[in-house]
Design a protein that fits this description.
44% of the residues lie in helices and 18% in strands. The longest helix is centred in the C-terminal third of the chain and has 23 residues. By secondary structure, it is an alpha/beta fold. Zinc ion binds next to helix 6.
């Protein structure tokens, strides 16, 4: 490193692989080839999972706002130990069992406004490719067999541990593990292919009957869709070891090339200061939180507001203040759109707006510092609101201020209220407001109040101003 970014600050990320903050530019065609580890669809995703998925979304959007094209692949793990256990217990096929949770996952992502990657890749649709990769690893003598299962021989890959910066050279040779869930910091030869067990589903392939281990799917699908070296591989910090370490061992043994140039990892999420667990009663799916009446955009805001490299403490107070912050920005936008401003020189205000956007952009270029980017916007909103109060905000600054807000929202995407069941369209609301105006004109004040109350019950707030009626959704 040691590069200076004095003139133009470049986009840079903390790379887990090098432990450095490095300038990021895609290797080819201004296109970011990116792989992110997706959900295991054995139950509903929890709020900790969605921290990582929200980080992927912010990452995607910022790369695109920075003018890059995206080629993003995310896997859907639809075969592993827990899925098979649950499917067998419920007398369902794997496909029947996982379809429910895959759909739930995609619905949850849509509620949180997470963009769909260019490609979603299901593990079960790539089994022959995985078998082929394992055959190639066997050819290169990276594997051995035991009881019909095939294992990766870690001692054959001396760089093992380079991502987690751990020294595994003293590991017990031949110690192996064939479950998809691991003890932390215990490197063992991991399973690539599992022999069929009685009553469990399996596939017939060129390497025999069985099913893939968890790690091989990511290596195979990433290389298949994105090529031998990715620009970015991202995931939650809990995946660094062993999952990503194993992905590197498999992929680099197959290709002889570096698997990913940048490894980005989102930190843990705590709930009310504690590790989330079912026994503590602080384990929440997105559905649990929405059922308590919180809006998905407040959840999105809270998850996005803490920079991905920092642990995020998810609290219900935090969720309430996220909702308040969104409300403040919506009110500000409404004020910009409908307010009457002064005909006065706008030069210094335009310079202030440009500075706010620069601060916003530079914060995000700095390893996606979303907290600082939000601070830049809120400082600007506070200052300009004060100027509006004193009648000093120039009319010519309103459009640029809206443009700044639009840039903010193309990343954070929280200003549009989520539509509720039975919600009125804009046209229906305008029609009600016109009816109310008619009633008032006819001195039918009870009727006018009734319409106001009716709208309020449907979540629409009216405000009578000297410039006419303003309305907004609650
Ligand atoms: Zn993965």
């Amino acid at each position: 490193m040691g590069k200076l970014f004095a003139l133009t600050m470049a986009l840079r990320f903390s790379n887990t692989l090098t432990h450095q903050v490095e300038e990021f530019v895609p290797a080819r065609d201004n296109t970011v080839r990116m792989y992110t580890c997706g959900p295991t669809v054995y139950s509903y995703a929890h709020i900790g999972n969605f921290r990582a998925f929200t980080f992927y979304d912010i990452l995607r959007r910022w790369l695109r706002l920075r003018g890059m094209k995206l080629d993003h692949v995310m896997n859907i793990t639809d075969v592993e130990d827990k899925i098979i256990r649950n499917a067998v217990a419920e007398h369902k096929s794997i496909a029947e069992y996982t379809a429910v949770y895959e759909k739930a996952f995609l619905d949850d992502c849509a509620a949180l406004r997470l963009e769909r990657p260019e490609q979603l890749a299901r593990a079960t649709e790539h089994i022959p490719e995985m078998a082929k990769a394992i055959a190639q690893l066997a050819e290169k003598t990276y594997t051995y067999q035991s009881d019909g299962s095939i294992y990766y021989r870690i001692s054959k890959f001396p760089e093992y541990g380079k991502l987690s910066h751990s020294d595994f050279s003293g590991m017990r040779s031949g110690a192996r593990v064939d479950v998809d869930e691991y003890e932390k910091a215990d490197a063992r030869d991991f399973v690539l292919w599992k022999a069929p067990k009685d009553g469990e589903p399996y596939w017939d392939t060129e390497i025999g009957p069985g099913r893939p281990g968890w790690h091989i799917e990511c290596s195979v699908m990433a290389i298949q869709y994105l090529g031998e070296t990715l620009d970015i591989h991202a995931g939650g910090v809990d995946l660094v070891f062993p999952h990503h370490e194993n992905e590197i061992a498999q992929s680099e043994a197959l290709t002889g090339k570096p698997f990913a140039r940048f490894w980005l990892h989102a930190e843990f999420l705590l709930v009310e200061g504690q590790k989330m667990s079912k026994s503590l009663g602080n384990f929440f799916t997105l559905r649990d939180i929405l059922e308590k009446g919180y809006q998905p955009e407040a959840v999105r805001y809270l998850l996005a507001s803490v920079p991905y490299r920092k642990a995020l403490n998810f609290t219900f107070d935090g969720l309430k203040s996220a909702a308040t912050s969104i409300e403040r920005l919506r009110n500000y936008k409404l004020r910009l759109e409908t307010g009457r401003f002064a005909e006065r020189d706008a030069e210094s205000m335009l310079a202030r707006t440009a500075q706010a956007q620069k601060d916003f952009d530079e914060s995000l270029d700095d390893d996606l510092n979303t907290a600082q980017a939000l601070a830049a916007v809120f400082e600007y909103v506070r200052e300009t609101n004060t100027l509006m109060d004193s009648g000093e905000f120039p009319i010519a600054a309103a459009q640029p201020a809206l443009a700044l807000l639009e840039r903010f929202d193309s990343l954070f995407d929280v200003l549009r209220p989520s539509s509720k069941e039975g919600a009125l369209s804009d046209e229906e609301i305008e029609a009600k407001i016109a009816q109310r105006a008619q009633a008032k004109k006819a001195k039918d004040f009870a009727g006018a109040d009734r319409i106001r109350k009716e709208l309020l019950d449907l979540g629409v707030v009216l405000e009578d101003t000297k410039d006419g009626v303003r309305w907004k959704r609650k």
